[in-house]
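Tutorial, part two.
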Amino acid sequence: MRETKYWTWHMAAGVVIALLLGMHMLIMHTGLLAHIYAPMGGEAVSQANSQFRDSDVRFTVSYILLLGFALYHGLYGLRTILFELTLKPAVERAVTAVLLAVGLGLFGLGVWGAIGAHALAAARG
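Running the prediction step on this input gives:
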């Protein structure tokens, strides 16, 4: 039952990733929403437009959510693949602990970067 819950979260994370990544692709690569999210003109990936988006808290939150869901989805998938090797229970617990530590570390680093970029962009005005 417990593994079913984690697998359900894994599938839900895939759906959320598809939605957030879809929005990212629309905003950054199609130009359809350029009048809203690239008001400085030119390319959506220009420094001025990037700083504009970094100063918007909605983008910071969406980046953090995308990071969290992607890390969970990827690391849980890796854990599942490794468990198919029929490891001993002690090794499975060690693998879980290592992946959890790596995931939390990467998430912390990503959150720090996203919040730092937001703070820098907001300070520049």
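The radius of gyration is 18 Å. In part three we will examine how such features are distributed along the chain.
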